[in-house]
């Protein structure tokens, strides 16, 4: 694996993780050690465990277990991955580089239960602070014997598990300039694919009165991202879809990103399209409505929607409570067009980054979290 690891980024980010953990706010205050275990699962596109790996190392490391203790860090991985991780583990002369706990690398045994390795990791957890609770990501469940035997070991030890998904999300959500740059690039590519491919294709279909299914159109968008001419100079191997494109028309609309484009033919009225490109692991998202000969009322409502968006953007400032931003928008709609209040969605978006949708940072009426710069 002659792959380079950005050491500076690793140290900056691991420092941030540790300093937030030391502050001990919310769930961070309840955990004696943090355990991040990643198995192999082709089905899982987004998970906190893989996101934190990407954030720290720039790569997803399958079948790798990371244990963060107050004075040491242990990684258990295959020989190849251990060689890759040596770039941050071996710090000449100064074991505790940059004020971050030193790293111990353990090589995974292929043929046995890894008992000796597991014992070392449990011993480290036991020696960290009170040694009783471990922070985990409760939603992440990877299949396979290796992950099962590790999880069984934690359970057998009687360690209490605390879900730290939200506090780790808050830690990773504030982006460095380089990360913002990757997201801007992802957004720019999405915009190119949308305007140069999708919009042009829809206009062709409408002009020629073609019969095209939503699902077929969505597939053609996925194919388009393999072509350099739509990628604004990006290498196609660094570009993927955040989710399968969602194209809807003809009066049936669901505003969730888990919806699949159906097999109905595109109706030449209001056509909605949602797509997002992930560039070097960072996500973007774009949703557009194309209206063919819309009546005046539809145009007025659309223009009002844009005013609502502007109102929201004014609210999104450092230190503002998310729920306050949402409620200000709600009041604005009540004042300007009360009949449309029932049409306002329950959330107005969410934070994104390495994961497409950050569940603990959703713009809704309940979220008490304060917005932060970046």
TrEMBL record:
It comes from the Eukaryota. This is FACT complex subunit SPT16. It comes from Nibea albiflora (Yellow drum).
């Amino acid at each position: 694996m002659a792959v380079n690891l950005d050491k500076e980024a690793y140290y900056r980010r691991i420092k941030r993780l540790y300093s937030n953990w030391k502050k001990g706010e919310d769930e961070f205050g309840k955990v004696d050690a943090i355990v991040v275990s990643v198995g192999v699962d082709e089905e899982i596109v987004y998970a906190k465990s893989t996101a934190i790996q990407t954030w720290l190392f720039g790569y997803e490391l399958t079948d790798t277990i990371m244990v963060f203790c107050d004075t040491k860090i242990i990684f258990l991985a295959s020989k190849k991955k251990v060689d890759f991780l040596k770039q941050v583990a071996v710090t000449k002369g100064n074991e505790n580089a940059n004020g971050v706990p030193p790293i111990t690398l353990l090589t995974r045994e292929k043929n046995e239960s890894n008992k000796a390795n597991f014992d070392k990791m449990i011993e480290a957890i036991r020696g960290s602070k009170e040694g009783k609770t471990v922070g985990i990501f409760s939603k992440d469940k990877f299949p396979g014997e290796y992950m099962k035997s590790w999880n069984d070991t934690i359970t057998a030890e009687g360690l209490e598990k605390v879900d730290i998904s939200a506090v780790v999300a808050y830690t990773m959500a504030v982006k460095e300039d380089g990360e913002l740059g990757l997201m801007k690039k992802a957004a720019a590519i999405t915009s190119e694919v949308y305007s140069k491919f999708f919009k042009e294709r829809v206009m062709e279909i409408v002009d020629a009165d073609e019969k095209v299914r939503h699902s077929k159109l969505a597939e053609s968008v996925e194919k388009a991202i393999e072509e350099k001419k739509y990628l604004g100079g990006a290498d196609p191997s660094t570009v993927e879809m955040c989710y399968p494109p969602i194209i809807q028309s003809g009066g049936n609309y669901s505003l969730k990103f888990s919806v699949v484009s159906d097999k109905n033919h595109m109706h030449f009225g209001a056509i909605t399209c949602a797509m997002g490109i992930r560039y070097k692991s960072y996500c973007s998202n774009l949703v557009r409505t194309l209206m063919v000969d819309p009546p005046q009322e539809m145009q007025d409502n659309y223009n009002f929607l844009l005013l609502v968006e502007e109102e929201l953007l004014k609210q999104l400032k450092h230190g503002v409570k998310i729920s306050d931003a949402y409620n200000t928008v709600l009041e604005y709609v009540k004042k300007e067009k009360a009949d449309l209040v029932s049409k306002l969605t329950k959330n107005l978006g969410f934070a994104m980054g390495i994961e497409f949708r950050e569940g603990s940072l959703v713009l809704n009426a309940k979220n008490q979290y304060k917005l932060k710069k970046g």
